[in-house]
Amino acid sequence: MSRWPVRPIQDTDWDAAAEVWTLAHPHDPFSGPELRHQTEQQTTWGYRHTALVAEAEGGAVVGLGLLSQNPGMYHPQRFGLELAVRPDWQGQGVGAALWQELEETLRGWNALSVRTLAREDHPLAPHFLTRRGFTPGKRYFTSALNLTDKSFDAAPFDEGPFLATETRLMALGVRVRSLAELREAGTPDLPRRLHALMSDVRQDVPRSEPATPLTFEVFDEAVLNDSCLLPGAYLIAQAPGGEWIGQSTLFRSESSPDLLTGLTGVTRDWRGQGVATLLKLHILRVAQTLATQALATQTPAAQALAAQTDGQVFLRTDNASDNAPMLAINDRFGFVRDPASVSWVLEFGADGQS
Asked: How many domains does the chain have?
């Protein structure tokens, strides 16, 4: 029997499991309800999934293992892996105990592959994955902009270099509107139009697996009804004739004051004309206001996480290393890149052997 008992997650475990995840991945925080909802969505969509926890002596949850399927890169026999161990318990076999159970589950499902992300500077993860047959692939950069840096007089970035782009596009009749505005205005068929826009702009996003269409039902639940979505920061770029030509979104977990960027994308006909820069400029303006509000209205969990960064609030975004245009825009706005995260994959043969 393993030194670390592994069992399916129970209703009373979600907060402890989310704490394990957030401590191990502070740049990708979750609260208990958020983690539970994300897992329950897999059931709603008819996907195979599992959630396991590892316990220390006395029953404390010290590890979390998740298997899921990505609706944006869906294949019935390909899975995503999330593995987290409390930092003070890492290197003691907790992750190995979780992986042993998860691997058996994958083989029972006749999985073709399982994929996970790991920071390249993590002291244990690359070696852990290599020993178990995973191979590295596409690299992604998480970049962060400090929205509360005291060295800035008024804003965490200099708007000057981008105002000419804003002026030029405004002269052409391009406008930026928020989801909150569009809802208040009673925009007809709003959810369907937003779904169509996202379906359009996500076509060329670099991915580790081929993209699959997002159904409207998945989009409506996973994006529009995500409790972390900020409607005032879901921005749409609108052309002079009323056509929607780009989008950018912000999310915030209740467990952290930081802001997380969702998909920023522009329709093919409007690329190369500064629309993504315009959206990023407006997103940063909204983010600065939200960061100020966050300092006064943090939940206890968010306060605890903020204490680790001296009360600073960051705007975070991630991009594939080969997404040069978006990386260049982020660099111009002053985002600082973290060490890359690497997509690791374990391929299983037709007979279930890796």
From this structure: 2
Question: What Rg value do the Cα atoms of the chain yield, rounded?
Answer: 21
The token duo for 44 is: 């709603």
| Element containing residue 341 per DSSP (H, E) | strand 341-347
CATH number at 27 reads 3.40.630.30
For residue 125, being part of any structural domain is answered with no
Rounded Cα distance between 320 and 337, Å, is 12
Q: Are strands 113-119 and 78-85 parallel, antiparallel or unpaired?
A: parallel
C-alpha 144, offset from chain centre: 13
Considering the domain architecture, whether residues 180 and 278 belong to the same structural domain is answered as yes
Residues 217, 18: Cα–Cα separation, whole Å: 26
20, 311, 337 from 303: Cα distances, Å: 16, 8, 24
Write the pLDDT tens digit of every residue in 242-260: 999 999 999 999 888 899 9
Residue matched to tokens 């596409």 = 138
164 falls within a domain? yes
* Packing angle, helices 32-44 and 14-24, rounded to 10: 100
At 341 the pLDDT is 92
Distance between CA atoms of residues 160 and 169, nearest Å: 15
Are 71 and 212 in contact by the 8 Å Cβ rule? The answer is: yes
> E strand or H helix at 178, and its extent?
strand 175-178
Tens of pLDDT along 85-109?
A: 999 999 999 999 999 999 999 999 9
Structure tokens at 330: 């982020």
